[in-house]
């Protein structure tokens, strides 16, 4: 018996063309209007959207924003194709970040991509991912590219770079802020679902506050720093930037892991309690020690405190002055020397490669002696002792992210003062992370 294949008619050709284009435009509309949150993406993936289509939408958004200060390197088509091929079938149990595009700050290694820390003479290409990046890839996430940064992560306003400076996502007159700014902007503009930054002095949190996203500084040691260029290694951690708390939490769960090859890594001892206790105490600065500059900020802070009250929290006002001594040590004292320790050998050979203000800050470490270092450490050790009586009676500390806004016009005449002021609340408890719970 002979089988005869019917020739396609003009009508059937038109129907097939129309059907395929309806599906295509449906997907385009879905992705164009899609909020870049992880749950939203996985929902459209269940409806047939492919990882390749998601990546193309991510790249299209990147192109449309057209801020050349955000990315230093964008993954090649062959790199992205391989990442998509390696994904395997849609399985959120096995890969909870399946198909999720993300960006990596350019002081964190990503395999076969350049790492520069915004200093071309420092440039290298590694064959191995930073440990945190490798874990996120195992969870199904796809690296879109490397984001620029303030050179060697030494900057509190996002402008200390020899490369183009990006714009704040909310108001171009504001400083974009902090060295992880470009990672924050990639999220704020909806180019990626999350990004990795670093956080030594608020880079993952102040940046997020100024660009209307969520920034998480994990407990020190809970995320491996192997494959991350250090700034102040005793205070550094990879930070997570996302649109929602839920997304930041999921990403953290995927990359939170003890790394036996990182001497600063700490074992994980189990999840924190997920349920809010029926009564808990929140400590806030009293009226004499609260530092807030503008009425609008004070109003917003009071609204935040009202949210705590609605959750039946007991608010207790405390003298915050002992806590303010910690960031002063970081910005005005010996921890500048730790920045020099991380780069001393490179600077000795490539001093002219440093951005001018970055060079001034790091070189200022030479004015400190070894005895200064010990005295600063003794002082820091005494500060938790001063606050122990407070900390044992409370569950949460509630502070604003920063005292006030800083505009680009504020920076020219005084490059360091406004920077340090932005960090007033950022390192209050870093030295209390003795154990990873």
TrEMBL record:
InterPro entries: Amidase (IPR000120), Amidase_dom (IPR023631), AS_sf (IPR036928). Signal peptide: none annotated. PANTHER family: GLUTAMYL-TRNA(GLN) AMIDOTRANSFERASE, TRANSAMIDASE. This is Amidase. It comes from Psychromonas ingrahamii (strain DSM 17664 / CCUG 51855 / 37). Pfam families: Amidase. Gene3D superfamilies: 1.20.58.1700, Amidase signature (AS) domain. Residues 53-402 form the Amidase domain. GO terms for molecular function: catalytic activity. It comes from the Bacteria.
């Amino acid at each position: 018996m002979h089988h005869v294949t019917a020739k396609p008619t003009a009508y059937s050709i038109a129907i097939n063309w129309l059907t395929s284009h309806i599906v295509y435009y449906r997907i385009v509309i879905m992705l164009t209007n899609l909020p870049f949150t992880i749950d939203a993406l996985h929902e459209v993936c269940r409806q047939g959207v492919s990882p390749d289509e998601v990546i193309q939408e991510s790249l299209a958004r990147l192109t449309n924003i057209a801020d050349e200060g955000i990315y230093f390197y964008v993954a090649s088509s062959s790199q992205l194709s391989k990442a998509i091929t390696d994904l395997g079938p849609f399985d959120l149990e096995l890969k909870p970040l399946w198909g999720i595009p993300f960006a990596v700050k350019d002081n964190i290694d990503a395999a076969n991509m350049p790492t520069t820390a915004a200093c071309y003479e420092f440039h290298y290409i590694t064959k191995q991912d930073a440990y945190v990046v490798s874990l996120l890839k195992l969870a199904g996430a796809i690296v879109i590219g490397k984001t620029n940064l303030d050179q060697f992560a030494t900057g509190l306003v996002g402008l200390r770079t020899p490369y183009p400076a990006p714009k704040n996502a909310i108001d171009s007159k504001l400083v974009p802020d902090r060295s992880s700014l470009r990672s924050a902007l990639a999220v704020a503009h909806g180019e990626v679902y999350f990004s990795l930054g670093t956080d030594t002095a608020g880079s993952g949190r102040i940046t997020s506050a100024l660009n209307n996203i969520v920034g998480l500084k994990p407990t020190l040691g809970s995320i491996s720093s192997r494959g991350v260029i250090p700034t102040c290694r005793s205070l550094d951690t990879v930070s997570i930037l996302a649109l929602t708390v839920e997304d930041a939490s999921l990403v953290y769960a995927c990359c939170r892991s003890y790394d036996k090859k990182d001497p600063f890594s700490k074992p994980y001892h189990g999840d924190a309690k997920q349920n809010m206790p029926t009564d808990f105490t929140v400590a806030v600065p009293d009226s004499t020690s609260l530092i807030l500059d503008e009425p609008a900020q004070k109003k917003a802070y009071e609204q935040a405190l009202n949210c705590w009250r609605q959750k039946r929290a007991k608010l207790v006002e405390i003298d915050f002055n002992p806590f303010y001594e910690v960031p002063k040590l970081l910005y005005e004292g010996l921890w500048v020397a730790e920045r020099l320790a991380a780069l001393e050998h490179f600077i000795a050979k490539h001093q002219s490669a440093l951005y001018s203000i970055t060079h001034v800050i790091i070189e200022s470490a030479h004015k400190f002696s070894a005895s200064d270092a010990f005295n600063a450490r003794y002082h820091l050790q005494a500060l938790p002792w001063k606050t122990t009586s407070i900390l044992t009676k409370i569950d949460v500390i509630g502070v604003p992210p920063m005292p006030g806004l800083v505009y680009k016009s504020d920076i020219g005449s005084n490059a360091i003062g406004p920077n340090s002021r932005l960090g007033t609340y950022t390192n209050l408890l870093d030295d209390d992370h003795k154990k990873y719970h």
